[in-house]
Structure formats: structure tokens, C-alpha cells
Amino acid sequence: MAVTKTEPINGSTNKPSSSSVSMKSDLMSTLSLKSLKLKTKQQELLIRVSILCLVYVLAFITRLFSVLRYESMIHEFDPYFNYRTTLFLTEKGFYEFWNWFDSESWYPLGRIIGGTLYPGLMVTAAIMYWGLRFLRFAVHIREVCVLTAPFFASNTTLVAYFFGKEIWDTGAGLVAAVLIAICPGYISRSVAGSYDNEGVAIFALLLTFYLFVKAVNTGSLAWGLGSALGYFYMVSAWGGYVFIINLIPLYVLVLLITGRYSMRLYVAYNSMYVLGMLLAMQIRFVGFQHVQSGEHMAAMGVFFLMQGFYFLGWVKHLLGDKKKFEALLRIIVTCAVGVGAIALGVGTASGYISPWTGRFYSLLDPTYAKDHIPIIASVSEHQPTAWSSFMFDFHILLFLFPAGLYFCFKRLSDATIFIVMYGLTSMYFAGVMVRLILVATPAVCLISAIAVSATIKNLTTLLRTKSKVSQTGTTKGASGGKGSSKALPDQSQPFQRNGSYCIAFRCFLPAQGAHGNRVIFDDYREAYYWLRQNTPADAKVMSWWDYGYQITAMGNRTVIVDNNTWNNTHIATVGRAMSSYEDEAYEIMRSLDVNYVLVVFGGVTGYSSDDIKQVFVDGENWRWSIPFLPIETAKIVRFLVEYKLSYYRFGELVTEYGKPPGYDRARGVEIGNKDIKLEHLEEAFTTSNWIVRIYKIGGVSIALIYCLDQGSDFRNVQWIHVLDFVSSDNLSSHPTPPPSHTNTCFQQQKFKLDHIQQSCSNSTITAEGNKYYGECHEKSIRFLKPANKEASLGRETDSERWAPPPQGYALGCFWWAEIAFV
């Protein structure tokens, strides 16, 4: 059926009504941007706010890579202690947290938590958690801890914007916000899961500096008090507050020497120092160090110097005679220097003023820690920084940083002097210690932002001037251009030649297997879960201090030493045990009441930062705990506990195709001693990739039973609970006393546990049925398995594959196992 057009009557065409056209035009005019009629400043404000919002989101999402690619979890070692204490704070409250005595760390000494940590990070996470719970958000405290560092990194971008605006201009502030959001030197310590003090400390550090510079520029008491509050938050969060309390007095001293003293400076420093010192004393870990520690005496000295300057200004106003004032000034300065020197000497000699700590000396002298405090020098992040680290952490900022310093010196002011001093001092400390690159990153970003902003502004001004000159068409263009150049703010360029700098970095991808699959080593959590599920609640675990925090937090077991290296003697005792012969190490372990020993071994996977490297490669760092050990003598090394625990049964293992058994992939050599025997320790658990190995103290693992009747039918046994003891001396500590019976009961007899089936022909307790040994076909259905939910099927922790040794030894009736009869 054809559709015909309807022709209009009288030959007229269809036209929209005038009313509809007017309505559409009104609607379009209402929605048009022109109707907003934003002024130039309003448009600039809108653009700045939009850029800051995008940068804020960018800083947050760039730090979520680990969570999105893997899972939401806490990283590294130290953050696990912070998470454990935060969890305790949210569950028990602040009062219990402040008075918490932790008996699970530094056994048998223990640790007073409230007096030995900086609580700022924990309190911050707890407040955010309580706030989210109050708003009815069902979140776990772990998720809050994981996202705390990215959240504060986003806040740091805002502070960087205002700081850059204060010391230079708005453009420098925007560039600084962008740079600090994507700078690898800051991202590395603020990613999701890095729940460490630095996650909030950099925000507090930059906030304190910004508020202080603002107070110096304005002379406002409110900004000075704000900087004191920022300093208090920094003190509560991180020990790096010492950098603030020394940099600010140094800055004030430079201003005094250069003749830049003013009432603005007087108000800013006095308000910040007095209130900040009083607030910092409320932190138990800090206490009265501001008036008793040599590291804080510079701030106090500058404070008294400021009072002297103010007093001299008042005296000069009263005298009115220049000669009399100069004579009085010489007398006052001589007396002040003498009294100060005497007071400092008496205070130091009497012990009231403590000397500088070793950590402070190690920052001033890079060789001090290696010679006097080896435990500090042994930490990888305390090593001097290589040039490659600067390149990876700063990228193009290494070239922009000198340019920014150039522009700062071209336009000196109170604010630019501060940022120059911050940049130079932090870069020096970053060269001394790798981890202090984090402190230098904000300064590098700010100074580089000044270089970018000043260069772009000068180039745009130059282009506009040239365009104006070309439009005039006069013959005096050259002279006009010369005259106009005098009106430019600053046309000097740090790079006089046109050029471009291209820096390319190779990306490091996750490891891949032989078939292209991604390989993830999860041995740490596997080992800690085994500890939590298969060891007594009061078991004591000895390991290198690096793993103490994780063992306590994830394994929920007591440790001998941990990452809070406050007792060098205790750590030296553990180091001596690890680096001794087995007999001597056994006595040390018995004296420390150790039940299990945990070692980290990388010979299978190629993980080079294992315990063997700490003892035998970095042995010079442990000579304070191993005075007798000649590191060069291989015949002695192979009998030491660390060597034996790492390479036990390793000689039976083929780790790489085409290599002999016992080939160490981390060190690239074949071990010489492949038949290692243990006398006082026994293997308890080895993870699937052999990265973590756990040994039990006490010789041979045996199953001993009650001898209620010599004619008991042991085939009716329903279950057996194995009890292992070092010797009969430990029977007194067991809650159930041994039954009374004669020593003829199964003395020196060997019995077979018929109800337990063998899992493998070469059965041992651990590391059976994994990818290195092949599959096990026998099954055990009665013995309790190590409950390891992280372990995949087909490993020794599966209920159908794991089984204990097929037989035991009864060495006398002092040893027993609990049994239940049907």
C-alpha cells in the first residue's frame, strides 16, 4: 500500500509555529555556556579546581595497582605490626592500647606498646574506621589500613598545590601537585597495602612546612599555631620529625645571618616551637627529648637566639646611640655564647642532655653505621643510594631540579630560601640512605615545578612580545624589542640551547613459568598459617628479626626478636645461635625457651635475599654477634646451624633442568655437603617452594603412649595426639602429669602405627607430594592434617595426601601420647 504525501491546503508549506521556535531558542540560550557569563578569574578558578580534582583521583588510582592485580592485603614486614596494633586499638579501645604490654614479642622481655611506638598512624586509621562505621559503611579495619596510604597521598597533592602557590605562583602549585601524584619516589612508599608510618608522615611533613612558610610570609599567629599542630601530628606519626625540628631552626638561623629578621619570623617560629614542643611531649615515646636530647638542642638554641634579637632591638630603640649599642652588643654576645657553652657542657657531662644517637650520626657520616652500628648498616634500605635509584625514583626531575634551583636563586625571598634549603639538605640525606629519597621527593617535585612554571611563563611572555612587535610594522622593531625585554619578569633560561631529553626505562614484568603462566610465591602466608594451626598457642619461634612482626601478626605466635631493633644484645644472641655449631646453638635455644626455628631459603626459587646471604655474604655486618666466625672458611660454614637448616635434604632435589641435584639457584653453585644430618632439630614444615622452612627443637619426632596395661590392644586406637619433648625435664611443664608405671613398658622398643598409612616411600613430615618430589598415591584418612587453606590441592597439606612418618620409637615411659579407646 503506497503512502502518499499530504499536500498543504492552498499550496502552503508546513512551518513550525513561532511559539515553539521561541521556546527552543530560550532553552538553548539557557543551556549555553555564554549565559553563565564567567569572568576570567572565575574561569581560571574552575580550571584549577577541575585539574586538582583529576590529580586527586589520579594520585589515588595509581596506587591501587597491587590491589587490582592481586588482592587487598598488607605488604612487607613492618606494616603487619601497625595493622596488629590498629586492630587491637579498634577492638579494645584507646586506654587499653595505650597501656598494652605485649608478651608475644621479644620473649622473655616483652614490649610496652604504648611507650615504644608512634601512635599517629594507628589512631588515624582507627578514627577513619569509626567514622565509616558511624556512617553505616560495613568495612573491615584491614581495608581501611590498606587504603590509608593512597588516601593520604591524594591529600598530599592538595598540600603540594598550596605550598607551590605560596612559594612561587599558581602554575607551580598545579605542576607540583601533578608531579607528586605520579613520582615513583613517593608511590613506592604509599601504594595500597603499604600501611607504614611514611604513608601519613609525608603528608604531615609537607603540611607543617607549608603552614610555617605561610606564617613567615604573613606573620599570622593562627598560621603559626597551625604549623605547631601539623608538627604534633608529624611527631605522633614518624621519627622523621627530627628532620623538621632541625631544618626549621637552620632556616631561621640563615634568615638571621642574612639580615632578614622580622616580627613575622619572630611570631611564626616562637608560636610553632613553643606549642609544638608542648604537644610533642604528650607522645610517650618522645617524652622530654625536646629539652633533654642533643638532637633537639639546635631548636632550643635558636629559640633563645630569637629572644636575644628581640631584646637587642628593644635596647637599640631605647639607647638611640649607635656606638653604645655596638659596645653593649659585644658584651651581650660574648656573655650569651659563654653561658650557652657552659650550660651545654654541664648538661652533657651530667647526663641531663643525652648525646646524639647512632642513627643521627649515621646521617651525618655515611660510614659511621658500618663501623659502630652494624645492625643499621645491615638493612638494605639504609645503604647509600646508587645513581640508578635516583634515576628510577625521580626520572626527568633530576634535570628539572637544578633548573628550579636556578630560578629560586634568581628570585630570592623568605619562601624560596626555605625550599632551597629543604631541597639541598634532603638530597644530601637521600644520598646517604636509600629510604630518605622519600623525604627528598616533595622538595624535588616543588623545585622542579618552579622550573616548569617559570620556563613556560617566560616562553609565553616572549612569544607574545614578538607577536606584538611584528604587528607594529615599525622600523624600530629592534629597539622596541630591546626595550620590551626590560619589562619582562625574567627571560633568563637555564637551558640556552633548544633540545629535548628523552629518558627510557625498562619495565619489570611479573615472572612467568615455562608455559607463560604467571608465578606467584605465597610461601610466607603458607608458613604462617601452618604455625597458627599446628603449633601450641604458647610456642616460641626464633628467626632473624626481619620476620618477627609477620610471625606475630599472621602466625599468632611468640617471637624472640622482631623488627623493633631496640635490644641489640638480644638480637646478637639470636645471630650467634644461627651462626654456631648445632650443639652450641641448641644450648642457646634452650636458654631462650625456643620451640621452633624459622629460616628463609632461596636456593630453589633463586630468591637471593635469604638468611644465608645475611650470615655468610654480609657476614661483616654480624661480626658483633659472631666474633669467632671466620667467614672465609668453608669447612666451618657447612657445619653451622643456618647452613644446615637451609640445605637440609636439599641435596636430593633437582632445581633446574640440566643441573645436578643440590644446585643452588640463588648463588649459582652446587652445594658440597648433600648429606646433612640434624642432631637436635627436626624438620616440621617446608613450604611448597622451599622459601620458608620450619624446624622443631627436640631431636627425633616420636609417638609415645600411655602404658595402662602391657596387654592393651593398640589396634583399637581411635586417634593419637603426638606430644614431642626435648627431654624428660620438660615433663614438669606439661599440664597433665605422666602416669605411674614401670620402665619396662615398651622401653627401647620399636612399634608400628598400623592405623596410619605411609604417604610416600621416602616419607618425611614435609615437602612431600609437591612439584619437586612428584605425586603421592597413598592416603591417610585419620591423622589430623596441617590446616593450610592457602595450599592448593596435591600438596602435602591436603587431607588425602599428608601423613606423618609410618613408625615411631618409644624411648621410655617418660614419653607418652594421649590415646582414646573405643
From TrEMBL:
Give membrane topology per the record.
Multi-pass membrane protein
Q: Pathway listed for it? A: Protein modification; protein glycosylation
Q: Where does it localize? A: Endomembrane system
**Residues covered by the Oligosaccharyl transferase STT3 N-terminal domain:** 50-447
EC number(s) on file: 2.4.99.18
Q: Where is this region: Disordered?
A: 1-23, 471-492
Q: Which cofactor does it need?
A: Mn(2+); Mg(2+)
InterPro entries per the UniProt record, alphabetical: Oligo_trans_STT3 (IPR003674), STT3-PglB_core (IPR048999), STT3_N (IPR048307)
Which segments constitute the STT3/PglB/AglB core domain? Answer: 540-598
Any coiled-coil regions, as ranges: none
In terms of domain of life, where is this protein from? Eukaryota
Instruction: State where composition is biased (Low complexity).
Output: 12-23
- List where the protein spans the membrane: 45-65, 112-132, 144-164, 170-188, 200-225, 231-254, 266-285, 297-315, 327-353, 390-408, 415-431
Keywords on record = Glycosyltransferase, Magnesium, Manganese, Membrane, Metal-binding, Transferase, Transmembrane, Transmembrane helix
Q: Catalysed reaction per UniProt?
A: a di-trans,poly-cis-dolichyl diphosphooligosaccharide + L-asparaginyl-[protein] = N(4)-(oligosaccharide-(1->4)-N-acetyl-beta-D-glucosaminyl-(1->4)-N-acetyl-beta-D-glucosaminyl)-L-asparaginyl-[protein] + a di-trans,poly-cis-dolichyl diphosphate + H(+)
Q: Record keywords: Transmembrane helix included?
A: yes
Entry similarity comment: Belongs to the STT3 family.
Name-wise, this protein is dolichyl-diphosphooligosaccharide--protein glycotransferase
Q: What organism is the protein native to?
A: Salix suchowensis
